[in-house]
């Protein structure tokens, strides 16, 4: 992540640091005396604190990264104050960028994320011949790096949003030579400080206060000793769950609802097929595609004569590296789960039948249908509880809309008491 920042450090160093410096100036790093507390705030960015625990975690990540790339590094260097503060500086820079993303309402769309992932050669290498991503291999690749698909994709979104902020700054910001020099000095210079601590407890015994001084302090600070204003309130809650409990549905209504929604309640028809691919990518020349098609037609002629040898021919001739070793088996799929050209052909075949030559963006396929899972709709009795809940929810939503207007009118028309509205709508007054 953040490859853009690392690859453009020299260009963006000044501009980025001009973002970071104000965060320290405005919010600061809190007292050294609190650093030993894991929940202490060691820095603040845009009003949000960075805790000691977060700083420690960032430092550990830095140490792990250094050890991974340089196993022989001196362990004393890894625990140095310089490395610890470098981790904090990076953490602050990340928070500054995150705040800029949030404050400017920058959102990365699913389409933009998909486009970015499509540019990654490592991810593209996981695509099947039909163009879909092999999710098992995708998860395995990320798991080897200690990530989940959700976490990885969230990180990519963060990276893209951060790039947009940086591009906006780099593309529009102007800095004078004096400002640039100030930024570089702040980045490269270090300060040594000494701290003298004065504990209040050491001086308490030396302080003598009179009753008059105590009373004067009390009167001057009355606001600090006032109890907060309290209120005794009553309220009504009109909620969907309460209305749902009052709804009843008949057996006939449930059966009618079942009949009307049967198609969406069960599983779709699935088919299992094997294929032989003679590759001819979409960008191939016409001569290459013609040659591939001729080879596919030749194999089809052989298979028509000996259909039982389909798996053996697939292992030997198919150019789909993912499925060839398994005799071309594509597993079970529905119409939406595979390349449309393959789906259209497979769903027209009878079990055991072999298709003609099928063209796709990947080349030419010969498809054999090996199994069929018909669409299955569970019986009414199995779905009854689920249907009842869905139907009650729908009716409760309609009833809620009707009651909400009446509820609002009654409360405002009889503002001195909630009892009439509570009695009419069957609600309980709460305090």
Shape: flat
By CATH reckoning, the class of the domain at 3-188 would read Mainly Alpha
Weakly predicted, low-confidence segments: 1-38
Q: Into which percentage range does the β-strand content fall? A: 5-15%
Rg on CA atoms, Å: 35 Å
Main β sheet profile: 4 strands, antiparallel
By CATH, the architecture of the domain at 3-188 is named: Orthogonal Bundle
Overall pLDDT confidence = 81
Helix segment count? Answer: 19
Query: What is the helix fraction of residues, given as a range?
Result: 40-55%
Q: Write the H/E string, N to C.
A: HHEEHHHHHHHHHHHHEHHEHEEHH
Major beta sheet, strand line-up: 4-3-6-5
**Measured distance between first and last alpha carbons:** 51 Å
Q: Briefly note the structural class of the backbone.
A: alpha+beta
Q: What is the total tally of β strands?
A: 6
What is the third-level CATH name, the topology of the domain at 3-188?
Triger factor/SurA peptide-binding fold
Fourth-tier CATH superfamily name of the domain at 3-188: Porin chaperone SurA, peptide-binding domain
């Amino acid at each position: 992540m953040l490859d853009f920042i690392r690859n453009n450090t020299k260009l963006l160093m000044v501009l980025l640091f001009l973002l970071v410096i104000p965060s320290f100036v405005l919010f600061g790093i809190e007292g050294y005396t609190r650093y030993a507390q894991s929940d202490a705030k060691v820095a603040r960015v845009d009003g949000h604190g960075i805790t000691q625990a977060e700083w420690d975690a960032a430092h550990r990540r830095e140490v792990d990264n250094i050890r991974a790339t340089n196993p022989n590094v001196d362990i004393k260097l890894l625990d140095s104050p310089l490395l610890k503060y470098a981790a904090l500086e990076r953490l602050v820079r990340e928070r500054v960028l995150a705040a800029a993303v949030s404050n400017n309402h920058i959102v990365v769309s699913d389409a933009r994320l998909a486009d970015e992932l499509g540019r990654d050669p490592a991810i593209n290498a996981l695509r099947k011949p039909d163009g879909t991503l092999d999710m098992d291999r995708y998860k395995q690749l990320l798991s080897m790096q200690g990530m989940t698909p959700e976490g990885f994709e969230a990180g990519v979104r963060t990276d893209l949003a951060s790039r947009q902020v940086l591009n906006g700054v780099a593309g529009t910001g102007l800095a004078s030579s004096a400002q640039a020099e100030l930024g570089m000095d702040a980045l490269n210079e270090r300060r040594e400080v000494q701290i003298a601590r004065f504990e209040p407890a050491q001086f308490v015994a030396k302080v003598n206060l009179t009753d008059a001084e105590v009373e004067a302090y009390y009167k001057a600070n009355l606001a600090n000793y006032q109890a907060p204003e309290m209120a005794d309130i009553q309220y009504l809650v009109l909620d969907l769950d309460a209305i749902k409990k009052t709804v009843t549905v008949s057996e006939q209504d449930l059966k009618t609802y079942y009949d009307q929604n049967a198609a969406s309640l069960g599983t779709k028809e699935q088919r299992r097929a094997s294929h032989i691919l003679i590759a001819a990518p979409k960008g191939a020349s016409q001569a290459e595609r013609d040659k591939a098609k001729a080879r596919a037609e030749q194999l089809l002629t052989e298979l028509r004569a000996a259909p039982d040898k389909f798996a053996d021919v697939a292992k030997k001739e198919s150019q789909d590296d993912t499925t060839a070793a398994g005799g071309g088996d594509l597993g079970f799929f529905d119409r939406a789960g595979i390349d449309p050209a393959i789906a259209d052909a497979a769903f027209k075949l009878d079990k055991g039948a072999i298709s003609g030559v099928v063209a796709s963006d990947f080349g030419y396929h010969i498809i054999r249908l090996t199994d069929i899972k018909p669409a299955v709709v569970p019986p009414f009795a199995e779905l009854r509880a689920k249907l009842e809940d869905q139907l009650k929810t729908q009716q409760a939503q309609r009833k809620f809309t009707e009651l909400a207007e009446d509820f609002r009118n009654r409360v405002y028309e009889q503002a001195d008491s909630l009892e009439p509205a509570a009695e009419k709508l069957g609600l309980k007054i709460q305090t």
